[in-house]
Amino acid sequence: MENAIGTIDIVVIAIYFVVVFAIGIGVALKTKSSDDLFLGGRSLTWGFIGLSLFASNISTSTIMGLSGAAYNSGIAQSMYEWMSGIPLIIAAIVFVPLYLKSKITTIPEFLMLRYDRRSQVIFSLLTIFASIVVETAGGLYAGAIVMKTFFPNLVIWQTTFVLAFIAGLYTAFGGLKAVVYTDALQALILIIGCGILTFMLFERLDFSWDTVVASAPANHFSVVRPIDDPSLPWPGIFFGVLLLGFWYWSTNQYIVQRILGAKDLQHARWGVILAGFLKIIPLFIMVIPGAMAISLFPGLENGDMVFPTAVTSVLPAGLVGLVMAGLISAIMSSVDSTLNSSSTLIVIDFIKPAKPDLTPAQVTNYGRITTIILMVVAAGWAPMIANFGGIWAYLQQMYAMFVPAVVIIFLVGAFYKKGNAEGAFWTLIIGTSIGIGFFVLQQMGLWQLHYTITVGVTTAISGLIFWIVSSNSQAPSAEVVANYTFSSELVNEDNHGLPWYKNYINQIYLLAAVILLVLIILW
Fold this sequence. Notes:
Layout: H1 7-28, H2 34-39, H3 46-57, H4 60-72, H5 79-82, H6 85-102, H7 107-114, H8 117-150, H9 156-204, H10 209-215, H11 235-251, H12 253-260, H13 265-278, H14 282-296, H15 306-314, H16 319-354, H17 360-381, H18 391-415, H19 421-443, H20 451-471, H21 478-484, H22 504-522
Helix pairs in contact: 1-9, 1-16, 3-9, 3-12, 3-13, 3-16, 4-8, 4-14, 6-11, 6-13, 6-22, 7-8, 8-9, 8-16, 8-17, 8-18, 8-19, 9-14, 9-16, 9-17, 10-14, 11-18, 11-20, 12-16, 13-22, 16-17, 18-19, 18-20, 19-20
């Protein structure tokens, strides 16, 4: 490590913390009701929604995981980032209008309206598990690794608790609006900091792309890989990347919650499309730097250390602090979002139904207490992630267990009018059990298919279950079909009479063209 963290770096980080806490305290003073705490008063505009979607998704586990994957196996896994625009387009067209029309606070609430209480409870529990054990703990663990790079004497478990406390404090009292406002700041810091690092890495290579390519193994910069590729075989693009992406961007409470807090349908859709464009940026400031590091820092054994090594070896004093603030921002933006969404799920899906006479003030207090409890649980589990062979592998393997069943009941359920409560319930039960079974067999070495292909297999089985059970049980009512399944009228709802640049359909065309161009270049 060439550059130790200096006084000026600590000052930069301290300024960042002061600003974040000032925003959190300012919003907390205005947070009075449960609607304020959980949905930001349903007043969020498109810019804050888009930046918050980006920042909440780009956690330290994403930065370090993508850089490490690019260093070890190539840039194929970058497709999880820049191809996010495709599931976001589906969300903008199909699910954003359905969710906002339903006036829900949580995504599991939508399942109660579309199917029944059983599906709501199961999906809510799965989402809470994913948010705390996977997302929050993963972000805290990655953050602790980063901090330990700069301060070698830190203890991982102690660091995760400190980070969780900092993020949890303003989340518990400021709610979603504090999360979104701080996310917007964090997104900007993250882009600037990682952008500077990328520039300086490229400068060390004399701005020669040929040098970058020459130092990497064959096909390192190709995203379409053979079927036996260990990082991302080509069938995984269609099964793993797109199906996991759909679950993440259309049904994941901690992501969709800021969409539910939009002031109207137009701002929700604009924010979603903005996030699609922003998701292309990590390819250039997180993935490609990992590939550049091959020639600059050969022989690193742990891929998760690629990004911290680049920061401490390349950047001068002051800029180390800026990137450090960006990495801390990534920790905050993922942890605050998952804590807020999980407390929302617990309060709205479980506590309120059990205690229907709660006052708005009591609901708000339950939300704050729940946030603090979840903060402690996530911090306690985070150190265990070291046993899963890398952050990125941990995240994707955990998701592959339950995503297929969820994809079917949402995506197929939106178009299959006969899909009913029995079909959704048994799809969740059996499909998730099969996903867990494949996960266990894979950990034991008895299942050899890549997890992205396994997602496709489990999704196909789940779809068959949904169809068979729904076809042999009572169809949903006409009211349910009319209100909670897709119809062509939703495509242009609130989209008439707008200037061409405000028409989200035109924005979708542009986003799709950019994604296609990137695919052609990286093929």
